Amino acid sequence: MFAQTLDDPLDAISEAELARLVRVADPLLAGRPLLSPGHRPTRARAGQGVEFLDHQEYAVGDDLRSIDWRATARCRHPQIRRFRNERAADWFVCLDRSASMSFVNHSKWRLGVQLAASLSYLLLHLGNRVGLMLFSSDVDTLLPPGRGHFQYARVAAALRNSAPRASGGGSQLRRCSRKLAPRTPVLVISDFLAEDGMQTALTGLLAAGRTVQALQVVDDAEVDLRSSGTLTLRDAESQASMTLDLSDDGAASAAASLARLQDDLATCCRSKGIPFTACQTGDGWKKSVIRHLKHLGAGDA
Amino acid sequence: MLSLLSPAWLLGLGILPLIRWLHRFHDARSPLPVSALFLWRTGQQAESAGRLPARPDPRWRLRALFFASLLLTLAGPHWNPEPEIPIEVWIDDSLSMFAGESGGSRMHTGLRELVTSLQGADRSIVRIRSLSNPAVSLQLDASPDNDWLAILDAWTLAPRGRPAPPPAVQMATGAEHWLLTDGADKAIDEWLQTAPISRVIQVGQATDNVAVTRLAVRPALEPGELPQAMVTVSNTGEQAVERRLTLLAGGKKLQQWSLSLAAATSATRIVPLADVSAPNLRASLAPGDALRLDDELQLELKNLAPVAVRMYGSCGKHLRKALYTHPRLAVGAGNAGSYDLGIACGHNPAALTGPALRVHTPQRPQGLKSAAYWLSGAGNIRWPDLDPEWLYIDAAQPQANASTVLLSSAGTTLITASDAAQPVVDVFLDLENISLVRQPEYPALVDALIGYALNRRLLTETIHSEHPLAESHIAPRPLAPAVKYTQAARAAAGSIDLSPYIILLGILLLLTDILLVSRSAGHAAISTSRPG
Question: Predicted ipTM?
Answer without folding.
Answer: 0.75
